[in-house]
Amino acid sequence: MKNKLTAEYRFFLSMPHNMRVLLITNMLYALVLPVVEIFMAAYIMRSFDDTGFVAIFQVAMYTGIIITSLTNGFLLKHFKVAHLYSFGILLSGIAMVGMMFVKDIALPGLIVSGTLIGAASGFFWTNRYLMALTSTADENRNYFFGLESFFFTVSNIAVPLVIGALLAYIDGMQFLGITFDVYKGYRIVTLVVFLITILATYSLSRGRFENPVQKDFLYFRFDRLWNKQILLAALKGLVQGFLVTAPAMLIMKYVGQEGSLGLIQGISGGLTAILIYLLGRFTKPKHRIAVFGFGITLFLIGTIVNGIELSMFGVMVFVLCKVFFQPLHDLAYYPIMMKVIDVVSKKENRNNYAYILNHEFGLYAGRVIGLGMFIFLAYAVSETFALRYALIIVAVLQMLSIPLAKNIMKESYAENHER
């Protein structure tokens, strides 16, 4: 076992320097994301006891992503990409601290907080895409996203378990005359998260990342291949919003409190982490569609079981399928997207960031449509109806991604071969 781990570490060291720095930084930030994605939704549910407010928070967050993705394009003309990435990491911590320490947060404050956290995510994700694009090649992107997904999956197991245990332990505890409750526990967690964001920015400073040479980045007409990729992004966005909010909503309503979040995520997370690492380590570009299709099919099965049996059993099956689906989907999706950017950016002689920004618009369109559908069903019919059927609808629509992704891959490699 020791020899195998040593061999894997040596393989990691054989990767380009910038790729290794980015992976280590993302590993640290992986400790932050579960707090944003899972416990922020649970915190809002505790404050408002209404899943509609969680959806409103998500729309505000996704709007913040779009605003800063556009702003980031202009800032790249004057600031280093690594500095903007670091700013996004720090901003996410500051926004969470601000939200957690405001007493009796109302709807306007919820929208402002969501927009700020989205702004941080916009700086983080767009600059992450740009640095990953320039730090990797098509041949090692499966490994990059496999190892990154391994980090995120392990964090999605460990962080909820630790935080759930902390919140349960601290509730009602007295120390130095202070009575602690769950809300004070959330604030302690948020401060720890902020310290981790500082450590992540230090890690990133060891890299040597270059800004795009071509400064223009805002375009409205693109190659046909890229338009297909944007449709694929919209389909991804359609389900992405539900993956952030739905598990917390379902678990809080049908399973238990925050401690249950960690327990359910941990049941299948360990196996998923190992599987994703092995897939990233040993699969080739030609295997991406098989991985992509398997993940989406598994997600559909989970939503159907949840729809038929909206209870503790159905929710647990759905969350288990979701735990497998998300990293499998991302492992295949992002290398496909970056291959398309490699091809069309050379074909159209444009800044890589032009495609990263446009990609965010595609994701945003899907996210707003998906969350809009959930809000409409929740208020026009019932919240239970929305939790039961909205997931099935987006999962069925997501199946369209499989033939579309296959066509995109075929066309991108064909165009690359012609040149």
Automatic annotation (TrEMBL):
Origin: domain of life: Bacteria
Protein name in the entry: Major facilitator superfamily
Entry keyword set: Membrane, Transmembrane, Transmembrane helix
Gene3D superfamilies given in the database record: MFS general substrate transporter like domains
Organismal lineage: Bacteria, Pseudomonadati, Bacteroidota, Bacteroidia, Bacteroidales
Keyword set includes Transmembrane helix: yes
GO molecular function, one term: transmembrane transporter activity
One Pfam family it belongs to: MFS_1
InterPro entries (UniProt xref): MFS, MFS_trans_sf
Spans through the membrane: 21-45, 51-70, 82-101, 107-126, 147-170, 185-205, 230-255, 261-280, 289-308, 314-334, 355-380, 386-405
